[in-house]
Design goal:
mainly beta, Jelly Rolls, 10-stranded parallel sheet, extended, disordered N terminus
Length: 808
């Protein structure tokens, strides 16, 4: 067995550490290290602690020649952190600074744990040049008292002097079977530096032990620990290879590259953007915080991305992949109004000796919007949380407290001293955002609010309010008001501790690989990858974390899996799901598609939940000229917001221009419409499922409608309209506010309509299409409402072919 419990973690920076063929315990400590475990069941840690070590933080500070500077150390500039098993403070400082020689003006804070079995009096010493202190904290963080050699009782051992090497002691009483935190502070001004420490007491059998090697020293705190309250953030980018054996590997801080090697390993990336691989065996891989890449390799692996935008690849075997609910939070605004209330329309800020300073008070006569303010939330935000305390003061007859959110009123009939919290409220605003308001009564009763020196009555309430906004607007105007009707001396309200936090969910990429895998993306707009032959996979939460709608033409604001190679159109995809609840190509003709070679189960998903947006399964090709208010514009040059000429509704804007490159053979082969065939001035090439408007008396005769829509594939005839297979083709989809008839090369044709496929799509040459479409409508009745909004009647395959035959 090998263990590197020596000076290396603290005094050397970037190390190369190798284990033996046995069970090794290795840690890199400070710096960017390379650690190789070799054979055996190893415990490998990039930056983390080992038993008996000390966590350190180094600081640069301009010390003087005065005594008593140990507690000024953290006022300097923090330069490093990590783990050591020695007190080579000068060498450590040089390592951190990248210097050599005799360092000056620095401080080091060492922290670990002290395990006490036998209670009683212990004597501890420090010997230092210049100053040092030693503190011991109980489990609640309270410092214990030392009787010092220098006289008096302090909550630290006092050797805090500008001096040559000097030893001083302090006596302390410690409880039995207790784990304490022990901390040594050391500082150096000029000249030489030295530090050592000892302990003597019941657990040492009366012998004096070096604190560095005493068995009483336990596990130091984790790498996130800092005396300043902020994460240290200086851990290295480590490379760790477990080799053979069942290894436990932890990267801790930094952007680490971790490999479990053969056998069944547990690998945790920790913080940072890590690359984690299990290789052989049944591994458990955890990304931790940061944007991580996890690859399971062979075996039945479990991969959990945790926080951050992670990429998970299971590899061979029956794997479990979990993206997790990672998110990034940014505080956009917070105010306790202690410095006033600037920015609010009424910026009254009142200070009360019992409740402090708040926005307000407001009361009768201030109206439903007593004060308001507009905040910029930013674009493409997943969620925003607004939180504040509402101080509802001395109302005995229960008027309303009113919150306005972009003009929408939320009324809380709760100004009387009711001890229960009101029910949560939720609504979708005119801005498209979903607002959920939760209330918690923090205090109700006589809260000591004073007015003119007198204490108010006993109906006061402090209510904590949290407003969660999903799909939030770019700007939010929030206002506060009431229906109070008595004097402000009797009843009023105020706002305190106001904050707005932006929460952006992390978007993960999950690929199960071969084998029967279970994939869970968690929050965020996740991408799932399925390749032919990957096995029978289960996606447990498809569509669960979407930040946008699945029919808005944007494939980036929802969960996504590209199934375009396996299905010709969305109708075919939905029919396959409706057959047995599994995507397995069990119904229909897939001779022109790639074989799945497995199956996909989308837990809780129905056919109407699958669209072009989230599956890439779908109309114009590049070069087609579209009639706009700016003249004829090639379809590939159209921009969102440009206005197109429509058959029915004048000039209407384009909401989105979508592009999809697909195999141009088989059922996806485009249709060539020669100039003049349908009134088009030039040749026009469209997708086979794209529908053209036919305005002809024969349509009225056959179907009772002057104008009908017919899929291009059903218009194929002779040498005027025909299929043109090619290796690849790019189709363009023009999404508008509603289904419209527009003009391409002068011919009337449809804009793209995302929500009509299940009822309208034509299955090429399949006379059973109508029956299957009716079955889908039965299973998904909400699609019947979509049918009523189609811009024109759509001809079934046999109807379209009958009409096309008469047009010759």
């Amino acid at each position: 067995m090998a263990t590197n419990d020596n000076t290396n973690p603290g005094t050397q920076g970037d190390q190369a550490i190798s284990g033996s063929s046995g069970a090794d315990t290795l840690t890199g400590g400070f710096g960017s290290d390379t650690i190789t475990g070799g054979g055996g069941a190893d415990v490998l840690t990039g930056d983390g602690p080992v038993e008996g070590a000390w966590h350190f933080e180094t600081f640069d500070f301009n010390f003087s020649s005065a005594a008593g500077q140990a507690f000024d150390i953290e006022n300097g500039t923090r330069t490093g952190s990590g783990y050591v098993t020695d007190f080579n403070e000068g060498g450590l400082t040089n390592t951190v600074r990248g210097t050599s020689g005799n360092p000056e003006d620095f401080g080091v804070i060492y922290t670990s744990t002290l395990n006490v079995t036998a209670g009683g009096t212990y004597r501890l010493t420090t010997s230092s040049d210049d100053g040092s202190t030693l503190q011991i904290f109980d489990s609640e963080g309270n410092p214990v008292q030392f009787d010092n050699q220098t006289g008096g009782t302090l909550d630290y051992l006092n050797n805090d002097f500008h001096q040559a090497t000097t030893t001083r002691f302090g006596d302390v009483t410690l409880d039995p079977n207790e784990t304490y935190t022990i901390q040594i502070r050391y500082w150096e001004n000029r000249g030489g530096d030295s530090l050592s420490a000892t302990i003597n007491g019941p657990d040492t059998g009366g012998a004096t032990q070096n604190l560095l090697t005493s068995p009483m020293i336990g596990m130091p705190p984790g790498p996130e620990y800092s005396v300043t309250g902020s994460p240290a953030g200086v851990e290295g980018d480590d490379v760790i290879d477990g080799g053979a054996g069942d290894d436990t590997i932890t990267g801790d801080g930094g952007n680490d590259t971790l490999s479990g090697g053969a056998d069944n390993d547990s690998v945790d990336g920790g913080s940072g953007n890590d690359s984690v691989s299990g290789d052989g065996g049944d591994d458990v891989l955890t990304g931790g915080t940061g944007d991580d890449t996890l690859e399971g390799g062979d075996g039945a692996d479990t991969l959990e991305g945790q926080q951050g935008a992670d990429s998970l690849v299971g590899g061979d075997g029956a794997d479990v992949l979990v993206g997790d609910d990672g998110s990034d939070s940014t505080t956009l605004y917070e105010d306790d109004f202690e410095s006033g209330a600037s920015g609010w329309s009424d910026n009254t800020a009142e200070t009360d000796p019992n409740l402090g300073t708040s926005l307000g008070r407001f009361g009768a006569g201030d109206g439903l919007v007593a004060t308001e303010r507009t905040f910029e939330l930013g674009a493409d935000t997943d969620e925003v949380q607004v939180e504040f305390d509402a101080l509802l003061l001395d109302s005995w007859d229960g008027e309303d407290f009113v919150i306005t959110l972009n003009g929408e009123e939320v009324r809380i009939a709760h100004l009387a001293g009711d001890t229960s919290s009101p029910a949560s409220q939720s609504f979708v605003g005119a801005d498209g955002a979903t607002y959920t308001i939760d209330f918690t009564n923090e205090q109700t009763g006589e809260l000591g609010y004073t007015t003119g020196g007198s204490v108010s009555n006993s109906q006061d309430t402090i209510m904590n309010v949290v407003i969660t906004i999903t799909n939030p607007p770019e700007d939010l105007t929030i206002g506060f008001g009431s229906t109070l009707n008595s004097s402000i001396a009797n009843e009023s309200f105020a706002i305190d501790n106001f904050s707005i936090v932006r929460v952006d969910a992390a978007n993960d990429t999950l690929e199960g690989g071969t084998g029967n895998d279970t994939l869970t993306g968690g929050a965020g707009d996740d991408t799932y990858v399925f390749n032919a032959g990957d096995g029978d996979d289960v996606i447990t939460d498809f569509n669960a974390g979407n930040s946008g709608a699945i029919d808005d033409g944007d494939q980036t604001n929802n969960d996504f899996i590209d199934l375009s190679a396996f299905y010709t159109n969305i109708f075919e995809l939905r029919a396959d799901l409706a057959d047995d609840g599994v995507l397995n190509q069990s119904v229909g003709d897939y001779s022109d598609n790639t074989a799945l070679g497995g199956s996909i189960t989308l837990t809780g998903v129905t056919g109407s939940d699958l669209t072009f947006d989230n599956t890439n399964v779908a109309c114009f090709t590049a070069g087609a000229l579209i009639e706009t208010t700016e003249g004829l514009v090639p379809v590939e040059a159209l921009q969102r917001g440009m206005r197109l000429r429509t058959w029915d509704n004048g000039d209407r804007p384009v909401r989105a221009v979508l592009r999809r490159r697909v195999d141009g053979s088989g059922d996806l082969a485009p249709v060539h419409i020669s100039a003049g065939a349908l009134g088009n001035a030039r040749d026009l090439v469209v997708s086979p499922a794209h529908r053209m408007l036919i305005a002809d008396w024969r349509a009225q005769m056959l179907f009772g409608a002057d104008e009908v829509l017919v899929s291009a594939v059903n218009l194929v005839r002779g040498d005027m309209i025909y299929r043109v297979p090619r290796p690849h083709v790019t189709y363009y989809h023009l999404l508008m506010d509603r289904h419209e008839v527009i003009y391409a090369e002068g011919a009337p044709t449809e804009s793209f309509h995302l929500t009509r496929e299940a009822v309208e799509a034509v299955e090429f040459g399949d006379t059973e299409e109508g029956a299957v479409a009716l079955e889908i409508a039965r299973l998904f009745p909400e699609l019947l409402m979509c049918a009523s909004r189609c811009v024109r009647p759509v001809m079934k395959g046999y109807e379209a072919r009958a009409l096309a035959g008469m047009l010759d």
